[in-house]
Amino acid sequence: MATQPTEPRAPLTRDRVLLAAIGLADAGGIESLSMRRLGQALGVEAMSLYNHVANKDDILNGIVDIVVGEIDLASEVADWKAAIRRTAISAHDTLVRHPWAASLVLSGSGLSMARLRLMNSILGALREAGFSAEMTDHGYHALDSHIMGFTLWQVGMNLGSDEELKELATGFLERISASEFPHLVEHVQQHLKERNPEDEGEFAFGLDLILDGLERMRDATAMSTVTRVGD
Q: How do residues 61-75 score in pLDDT, each as one tens digit?
């Protein structure tokens, strides 16, 4: 009886290795990523991987570059707030989609071209909007801290689905005194309420506070300069 011919295996490439590594990290966390498991996922011996990557650090730097490359860059448009807002939300969504990535971005030792392009796009949007170099520096760090800090907090808390969060909140309310902690109880109760469909959530709320604050500072600085010139 003739055997069915097997389909030829796709050649091993650096891209295949890195995409498989992202799949392993997404499924089991960055701690699940090893050369042995990566080789198994690709159907090859671990030693074969070294024809395409130098070592595990090379893999980590490579997968960070791919993930950061998924983020929409701030475009050069008239509405600088909308451009930066879109980039920040895209960054947050991307890093939540790959929960291991935020900490790796911050601790990575390699030079990520995607990360450099992302930073440059945000800095450029601020400069083109009329911020001084000094204000751009402060503004960038405020935005980056919100993106990375909020994301690390969110993925670190790992509270599960909305239903699991509501169950957790209900159990918490049963264990604390409303008379002793009235404001905390009121806060937790917010997690049990149906969200307004137009409410984009806490990340967008904090982001808008930062962007609105930067705009006010820029406009106040510009007004002060005009006043001094007119005196």
A: 999 999 999 999 988
- Measured between alpha carbons, how far is 164 from 173 in angstroms, rounded to an integer? 14
Contact 124, 77 (CB under 8 A): no
CB 127 within 8 A of CB 87: no
What residue type is 75 in one-letter code? Answer: S
Residues 6+ apart with CB under 8 A from 229: none
Task: Enter the tokens of residue 114.
Answer: 């995607």
Q: What's the pTM value of the predicted model, to 2 decimals?
A: 0.85
How far apart are the C-alpha atoms of 24 and 30, rounded to whole Å? 8
Q: Six-digit token pair at 153?
A: 């907090």
Rounded Cα gap, residues 141 and 154, in angstroms: 19
3-state helix, strand and coil shares in percent for the chain, rounded to the nearest 5: 70, 0, 30
